[in-house]
Design brief:
- The chain has one domain.
- It is built from 4 helices and 2 strands; from the N terminus they run E-H-E-H-H-H.
- A two-stranded parallel ribbon has the order 1-2.
- The radius of gyration is 14 Å and the shape is globular.
Length: 83
């Protein structure tokens, strides 16, 4: 069995911070030999639309979105691919 990391964070703002976190993870994953899957999507507008007027549900929405993408049908977690 192989273990993969998965990077998906559409709620990091500003975009430059998102890039810094992704680059830091890429470096660290390389150092420890962790296979990674990097989701190329960064859709801040969609994220904001999803949480607007639902601030009290923001955490639930984030977890649902991330887990669904990581392990739902057709997801990187179900396909076990390396990008």
């Amino acid at each position: 069995m192989q273990v993969y990391g998965y990077f998906f964070n559409p709620n990091i703002h500003p975009y430059t911070e998102y890039v810094k976190r992704k680059e830091t993870l890429e470096k660290y994953a390389g150092e420890i030999g962790l296979n990674m899957i990097y989701d190329s999507g960064y859709d801040m507008e969609e994220f904001i639309r999803g949480v607007a007027y639902r601030e009290s549900q923001r955490c639930r929405m984030c977890y649902t979105l991330r887990l669904g993408l990581a392990f739902g049908p057709g997801s990187p977690g179900s396909q076990k691919r390396r990008i």
